[in-house]
Each structure stands twice: as C-alpha cells, then as structure tokens.
Design a protein that fits this description.
Strand order of the largest sheet: 1-2
Number of strands: 6
Helix content: 55-70%
Radius of gyration: 31 Å
CATH superfamily of the largest domain: Fumarase/aspartase (Central domain)
CATH architecture of the largest domain: Up-down Bundle
Structural class: mainly alpha
Strand content: under 5%
Distance between the termini: 63 Å
Number of helices: 20
Number of domains: 3
CATH topology of the largest domain: Fumarase C, Chain A, domain 2
Length: 464
Amino acid sequence: MTSLPPQPLSPLDGRYRAAVTELADYLSEAGLNRARVEVEVEWLIALTDRSLFGSSPLSAGDKARLRELYENFGQPEIDWLAEKEAVTRHDVKAIEYLVRDRLATLGLDGIAELTHFACTSEDINSASYALTVQRAVQRVWLPKLHAVIEALSTLAVEHRDAAMLARTHGQPATPTTMGKELAVFAWRLQRVADQIEGGDYLAKFSGATGTWSAHLSAEPDVDWPALSREFIEGLGIGFNVLTTQIESHDWQVELYDRARHAGGILHNLATDVWTYISVGYFSQIPVAGATGSSTMPHKINPIRFENAEANLEIAGGLFSTLASTLVTSRLQRDLTDSTTQRNIGVAFGHSLLALDNLQRGLREIALAQPALDADLDANWEVLAEAIQTVVRAEIAAGRSQITDPYALLKDLTRGRRVGGPELAEFVRGLDIGDAAKERLLALTPACYVGLASALVDELLVEEL
C-alpha cells in the first residue's frame, strides 16, 4: 500500500479548518513566533529609547522598519526560523538570530548586542503567550461566545411566552416557558464571559531566575523592575513582578478553568436543545441539499448540537489538562509547560468549533408550539402544586378546616393522569374561600407559568 500525500493529522487543520482558521493567526507556532519577534523588537526599542549602554534613540523611520519585522511576518520568516531551529535546537534562540540578521539588513548592526539583552527565554515566551492568548480570546473566541449568547437571548425574547411543561428529574413538573429556559443559559454564559473578560494576561521580564541579576551586573543604576513593568504594560498586558525563571501561569489556569466552565454550560445547552428536538418541541429547518441519513430520507439529524457536544468534551479535557499541568513547576523551572502550552490552540480550536456549531444550530431550529401545547394539556396533574399551596394559604387565613393538603393532593394525583374536568370537580368540593376557588378554577397548565415571561427581561437589564 502506498503512502498518502502529506495530510493534516488533526481535524482542526483538515476537515474543520475553515471554522477555526482565525485562531491560527495567534495560537499557531507561526503566530507565537511572530509575537516573539514583536517582544524582541520592542525590547530593543525600549532599551535604545533610554540610551542604555551607549545607544541612542532610534529615528521614527528606523523604529517603523524594525516593527515591520513582526507586522509583515510571513512565510520567508517562517522558513528562515525552521532552518535555523534545525541547527540551534532552540526556538527562542532562533528568534534572536532572526532579529540580528534583519538588523544587519537594515544597517542597524550597532545595536545587535542589545537583542535579547539580559533575557531568559521565558521572558520572551511569557510575554508572547500573554499577547497571543489575549488576542485570540478577545478577538476570536469571546466574540463567538457572545454570538452564541446573543442567539440565545434573541430566542429567549422570541419565545418568552411559549408555555411548556417542565421536566424535573425527567418527570412532568410545574410549567415554564421556552424563553425563560433559554434565558437561563444566556444568563449563565454571560456571567462566565464577564469573568473571562476581566481576567489577567501576565508576563515576567526579570531574567534567569526572576531576580534581575544580569541586568544589575550590566547597569546597577537602572531601576530594572520599573523599566520591565513599563515595558510589559506598554505591550498591553500585565506584569508579574514576583516569579521564578518562569511566569507562574496562574492567569492561564484561571482562564482555562473559566473556558472549561463555559464549555460545561454550553454542553448542557447542547444536550437540552437536542432533547427538545427529540421530543418535538423544536423542529429543524431543512438545509437545501443536506442529507440527514444515508438511508432514511426523512431525517434531519441534530448534528450541530452533537458536534458541539463532542468538541466541548475534547476542549474541556484539554483545558483541564492545561490548568492542572501549568499550575506547577519543579523548583525554579522545568519544561513541562513548554509542550503543554503548544496545545492551547488545540483546546481553543475545539471550543471555537463547538461555538460555531451551536451558533449555526440555534439558527436552524423553529419552535413547534402545538407540541408544547399538547404536552401541557396531557398533564393537568402539575396543577396539584398550585392547589395544595392555595389550600395551605386558606388554612393559615382561617378559611379552611382541611388537614394535610399535601397528602390530599398526593392521593389524587401521584402516579396518575388527572384531566381538567376531574381537577375542576375536585376544586369545587374543597373547603376553601370562593375567591381562592375561582382562582384555581381559572388555572390551566399553559397559564401556570408564574413570572417566567417577565424573568426574560433580566437579560435586558444585564445588557444595560
């Protein structure tokens, strides 16, 4: 058997690439290397701006040409680094050599020795990961999460008055509305999204073991911690002053735990909507040309929600591994974080793919109100809660001599189907006041939804 031509091993780089390609700008190896070049170049500019070690501030033109090294980072740089790393066997050292090479091309050899000055690889890496993860989350992943929240919120408002039978423990329960149930998911997701948006993206820039030892040896009169903080914060990320050789990754642990939490809520959404489709509460809008089953022509399978479910499980497992691995490092440094962090893009890729499927799936369903109505009409016994609660209130008010109203309703309804006429007859025979009796006789399962519709407004309050 002949070998296949070179093929992507991961489905994210093959079948699903179109859905996740934006992440590659940040969380691919090339995206990481571009950020590394950015950090190296900006550190050069920071040092020369302060005229350290005999340097002079660069002209605006020279700064612009230097910044083009990462702004126009592309295939030539990717190929150059691949060849150099094959020799150095060190990815960050290859970056340093690339910057030095380009400095020579630009006629800036005089500042070449300030390239990677006093830096350990983790100084460059921690800043680069903070930049790439921040940009991937804020520019790609969070907007897609917000798109799902928006789709849910739209459906919640649209179906706020769509009464449906609740199923607690899978059994008929006090009715709610479809809009309120979807609003619950939007509310939960927005809370986690807010936490993620408020999270840190931290870097260290303090040398080999986080002590600025080399820096002080070269120039003891510079306030290196202050300079490092100003530099890192100037990149748009946070500064971690107290570290070992590595930035401690706690901000990453927090982020991945929150992303996993969001994924758990989304997984819950996917399985619930799948179930609503299964029982006929939602119908699926046919997509022209699509095949549901290879042998059963009538089928429209809920593949968007099933795909999302599976990819959320994969992403959750990866986020959990990232969080549990990155939280620890042996003594002042080990390299378990290095290979682990190379899977950040894979975790967010599967999560983004799930979000994309959920967003599409939510656009391809339509509420089947007759199915909801029929289910409600077949389960009048859910009004037992209302009846026994009203009776208890009447007893407390001195308008009834009934004892143990809960047991009374349990005997009538538990394990039995009770229709509207039977309940009406039962209510008319109760020892309660006329006003209470009239309220109960006016109840139907479809109108026994409490404040469900009004609760959807809480989403609008949250947006304000």
